[in-house]
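Forum: Protein Structure Q&A
Topic: Joint prediction for protein chains with partners

I've read a bunch of threads here and the consensus seems to be that you should model interacting components together rather than docking separate models afterwards. I'd like to see that in practice. Below is the full input, 834 residues plus whatever partners are listed. Could one of the regulars post the assembled result?
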Amino acid sequence: MRHVISALVMNEPGVLSHVAGMFAARGYNIDSLVVGRTEDPRFSRMTIVVPADERILEQVRKQLAKIVSVVRVRDYKELPFVARDLMLIKVNTPPGKRSEVIELAQIFRGHVVDVGPTTIMIQLAGEEEKLDAFVDLMRPYGIKELGRTGVIAMPRGSTSVTLPSVEEENHAPAAPVKNRDSLSRGGVTKLTDKREPSQEELESLPPG
Amino acid sequence: MTASTTPAGTRSASPKSPKNKATVEVLPQQFDTNGLPILGAPVGKTSRYQGLNGAQILIKMLKEHGVDTAFGYPGGAILPTFDQLYDAKINFHLVRHEQGAGHMADGYARATGKPGIVIVTSGPGATNVVTPLATAYMDSIPMIVFSGQVRTFMIGNDAFQEADVTGITRPVTKRNYLAKSVKDLPRIINEAFIVATTGRPGPVLIDLPVDVTTGVVSEIIDDTPYLPGYKVRPAGHSKMTKAAAEMINEAKRPLLYVGGGAILSDAWREVRELAEKGNIPCTTTLLGLGAFDELSPLSVHMLGMHGSAYANYAVQECDCLIAVGARFDDRVTGNLKGFAPRAKIIHVDVDPSSISKNVKVDIPVVGDARLCVAEMVQHIQHRPRQEWLDQIGQWRKQLPFRYDASGPLAKPQAIIDAINTITKGEAVFTTGVGQHQMWAAQFIRWRKPRSMITSGGLGTMGFGLPAAIGAQAGRPGELVIDIDGDASYIMTAMELATAAQYKLPVKVAILNNNFMGMVRQWQQLFYRERFSYSQMVNPDFAAMAESFGIKGIRCTRKEDVFKCVEQMINHPGPVVVDFLCEEKENVYPMVPSGKCLHEMELGIVGSDHPAARAGNSNIVTPDSLA
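Posted by a regular:
Agreed with the consensus. Here's the joint model:
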C-alpha cells in the first residue's frame, strides 16, 4: 500500500535533512519525497510517498508531526486527491522514427522541449501510472536519460493542508480535539465543531 | 535559590532544605493568553537589546530565564561568551571533558526540574556533548547546549575547530538552531527554552558563531518565539479520562505502570492519589522509581527485565494496565507477543507517537500526565480488590529480591542494602550502567521523586559521577550518592577534579569487581563463560581519589562494609569508597531476550533455588522487603 503524506514544514535549512534522517533512523522507506516553496515564504510543502501498511503509516505520521519544524501533517488516505509527477525523458530517435515518438508523446499530452539530430526530449506531467506507461512505450526506442520529480498532491475540493487556525494554535487546555473532517470546510477549523473525535484523532493530538 | 530571584512562573527548586529532608518542589509553568509559557521577560518588538552584543544578550537572557547554574568548557569560538560569564554571577562549573559537562547538566535537570545549561566551544567541544545529548534525548530531559561555531562566513570552509554540529546533533536533539545573526538570537533563545521544557521535554542545541556573539544589535528586534504547530501543553480529552477511570473502576485486577514521564510532569502526587483512592497496586519503571512510595503496601517495586518477580507476574495477570508517562520499552515488556495477555491497556502520555507504538492501546489519553491523572482521580472509586492484593502479597512473600551473603568478599547487594538502611532512601542517588544500576534499583527502597538519577534509555556508562556532581550543584546541602561500577566509573572519573574544585560533596560508592558486570553476566549465561574482553585491571581507586584531593576509602573486608558506608555518608566533603566485591554475582530475576515477563530466570530469587531450599542461612532477604 502506498500512501501519500503532505506536510507543511518551516522553510529553513535542515528541515529536509531532519525529515529524511528521521525516516532513515526509523527504517521507513521513502518512494519519493518532493519539497518546495508555497505561497507563504515562511513555509514549504513536503509530499512524501511511503510504501507501508496501516500500522507503520500511523507511526510515520506521528513521528513526522513530532518534529518541531514540521507544522502540519496530513495523509491522503481517505481523501480524494489529485497527484502529479513531472518527467523529462530523452529518447533516441534514429532517422525516420522521430514522428512516431512525437505522435506517442502527443497521445500522452506530453510536450517536446528539445530536438537534436538523434534525440528528442519530452516533458510529461501526470499520474505516476501514466508516466510509467509512457516510459515503457519509449523503451524500445532507447532511453538516453530520464528524470522524475516525484509526486506532489493536493486534496480535491476546498480542503487544504495549511497552517493551523488561530484558535487551534492557541491551544486552550481541555479544548475538544479538532475533527479532521472539519478541514473540508475551506481549511479553517472551528472550535464550535461538536463531532466526536475518532480513536485515531484522540491518539494524534499534535505533540508538544 | 530563593523565590524572589525567580521570574514569575518559571520552574524553581525549593529553597535550600535541611539535609535529607528535601522533596523538590517544582512550580507548574504559567501560560499566557496565547498559550505560550511565560518566559523571563515580556516578548515582542523591543529595543532592550540595542547596544548589546550576542554574548551579553545570551547571559542576560539566561538570567531572565532563571538560570543560576551552568557547566562547560571554554575554547576559541566561545571566548566572547566566556568573557561575559566572568562576572555574570552565574554558578558556572568548569569541567574536565565536555561529556562531563553534558552529563552534569543532565543530572542537574533530573534533580531539580530546571533545564540543564551547557556552554562549550566549537568542533571537538560540541562533538563531545553528543553522547550526553543522546542520553538526554532518550530519557526526555530538558537541557540546552550552547556551542560555539566558527565565524558565519567561514562555515563550510573546513575552518579550524569547525564541525557541522547542527547536522551531527539533529537526530539527538528535540530541535537545534544555528544563529546566523545576532538579531535572531533572542528569539532563538526564547524558543529553545520553550521547546526544551514543554510537552515531552528534550535537549536543544544552539550553535553560536563567534561573530554572532560579538555582533551588536543596533535596531529594534522582535524576540517573540515563533513555533507554529507546536502544542506546548495539551490537556487530555475529558471523554478519554472519564472512560479510563470507568474502566479502572470496573477492573478486578488493575495495575498502575508508572514511568519517567510521571516525574517529568510532576504527576507523582496525582499518581499516588489515584493509587490510594482507587486501591490500585503500582509498579514503576527504572526512570519512574520514586514516583510512588515503595514502602506503601500497594507498591510492587520495579518491573521489567530485572524487575521484581511479583511485579512481572502482576503485569502478566492484570486485567487493566494503566500506563502513566511510560513508553513500553523493550526492557519492560519482554517479548511483545506475550506481554500483558489479559490486560486492557490505558496509556497516558504527552507524546502521541509513543501511544500504540509497541503495544495496542485500548484507551489512549494524550496529554500532560499531571493534568490527565488529576482528571481521572475525580472519577475513580475505591474498590476492595482483596483477591488481587492477596495474590500479589503472596508472590511478594515467596519471591522477594534476595542474595547469597556467603563467601569471603562483600556482596554488592549487601553494600547497597547497607546504604539503604543508613540513608532510609533520603538521598539523591545516581548510578552508572550495569549490574550495580540494577541492584541499586532493586535494593534501595525508593520513596521520593527526583531521587533516582540514571541513564535509562541510552544506558550511558560513565553517567554516574558527573550526574552526581550536577545533582549536587542543583541541590546543595543534600546527600548525593553515586552508586557506580568500576567499569562505568573510570570512564568519566576525571570529573573528580571538578568536584574537588567546586567542593561539591558527592559520595561515590564503587562496587568494584574488576569486571564490567552486566557484560560478564551475559557472557556467563549465554556465551558459555567466554569472558571476551570484559575483565579489567583497575587502579587503586581510593589512592586515585586522594591524588585529586578527595578522600578515598578502600573497603576490602566484608565486615567493614557497614562502617565504610557510614564513614562515606558522614564525611563532610567529597569521598570515594572502593568496595571490593565478589565478581561472580548475577542480577536476578532476569527476563532472557525473546522471553515473556513471566518466563523469568529467577535464580536466587526463586523459592526453589537449591540454596534456598537447603535452608541456607546465608540467603538474605533485606529487611526492607521482608
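The first strand of chain A starts at residue 2 and ends at 10.
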